[in-house]
Design a protein that fits this description.
356 residues; single chain
Length: 356
């Protein structure tokens, strides 16, 4: 039988051992998890993963330095590396080479025309491009990519010549212009025909243009307007290397943005695009002393484009090739044509006027 002294000594030794272990454990906890621990590395916040082709394209866009003439500013959009490689033909190219047939329907309808591509190329009809001829001059209301040697396709249009219908034949030619951004925006919103006629009437008045038929083409034929458009083309010389689009600001407000699949396609359509934004700048010109400062920076243009990442999307089949992707909010609207995994073209507009 063990003596009481021996038992007491063993208990005391066990308590000392437990105390030492507890202190060591406490020191370990304090070192690794207590107040004096080494702080974890700073959390890296990555941009949102692309949800679709439009988000993927916008995430690669770089905003270039602005080019300003009077009340119009152009921010070129470039890519570090080319995005698209397909060689699409434009409406004007297709018509000039006899590759495209555009006709009134057998029973003419102001809301649509029939088109057929008889070439071995893909041909892009861009939303906002004008068609002259037929029963009335028309405006293409959404992007259409016609496949090679295709069947006749019904293309949705708006009328941009209110006063003529009975006269004229069935065939069309290119109007050689694109509608001003304010008219293109109404088409993108699927506005009523009357709303477009009202805007055309407004542009005629704002530019001092007379037209018996209330024809949008008359604005571009106005000598004073044509002279001012020529000055914008002469003085705004953006670089074309890797430039795939632009954001345009009029009177300190973002008017719209256009982004394409490739620098080549943007270069082909740049003249028409610049003219369309220039007409709105001419119609809305205000004295320079009334412009508000500061003028938008590259950072603010980037913020506008990044609204795409928070938008909601809806898709549908395009009229012939590819699919149409519509986007909305917050504070941005847009519509793009996607084909074989790449964005052929997307047009973006603010939901409300964005002024800086």
């Amino acid at each position: 039988m063990k003596s009481p002294q021996l038992i007491i000594m063993k208990v005391f030794a066990a308590l000392v051992s437990l105390l030492l272990t507890s202190e060591a454990w406490s020191a370990y906890l304090e070192q690794d998890y207590g107040e004096h621990r080494t702080p974890p590395p700073e959390r890296i916040i990555h941009p949102p993963l692309p949800r679709n082709e439009i988000c993927g394209l916008i995430s690669r866009v770089l905003v270039g330095r602005p080019y300003t003439v009077k009340n119009l500013t152009v921010f070129p959009l470039q890519l570090a590396r080319p995005w698209g490689h397909a060689d699409y033909m434009t409406l004007d190219e297709g018509l000039s080479r006899g590759y495209i047939e555009i006709l009134e329907e057998e029973h003419p309808d102001v809301r649509s025309v029939l088109v057929r591509n008889i070439s071995p190329h893909y041909v892009l009809f861009m939303a906002g491009e004008a068609l002259g001829g037929g029963k009335q001059n028309r405006l293409i209301s959404e992007d259409v990519l016609l496949g090679p040697h295709g069947r006749p396709v019904r293309v949705p249009v708006y009328c941009i010549e209110k006063g003529r219908w009975s006269e004229g034949g069935r065939d069309f030619r290119s109007g050689r212009f694109m509608a001003p951004s304010s008219v293109r925006g109404l088409a993108q919103e699927k506005a009523s025909q009357r709303a477009l006629w009202d805007r055309v009437s407004g542009l005629l008045g704002e530019t001092g243009t007379r037209s018996e038929n209330e024809d949008l083409a008359a604005v571009y034929e106005n000598e004073k307007v044509a002279s001012e458009i020529a000055s914008f083309r002469r003085d705004i010389r953006i670089p074309f290397d890797e430039t795939v689009g632009c954001v345009v600001v009029v009177n300190g407000r973002i008017s719209g943005a256009d982004v394409f699949s490739s620098p080549e396609l943007f270069r082909k359509l740049w003249g028409k695009l610049l003219d369309s934004y220039a007409v709105d700048a001419i119609a809305r010109e205000i004295p320079s002393r009334e412009w508000r400062e500061p003028w938008p920076s590259e950072h603010e243009i980037r913020r506008f484009l990044d609204r795409v990442f928070r938008a909601s999307f809806r898709e549908r089949d395009a009229r012939d090739s590819g699919r149409i992707v519509e986007l909305a909010g917050p504070e941005i609207d847009g519509e793009g044509l996607v084909f074989r995994g790449e964005v052929v073209h997307v047009h973006l507009t603010p939901q409300r006027e964005v002024r800086f």
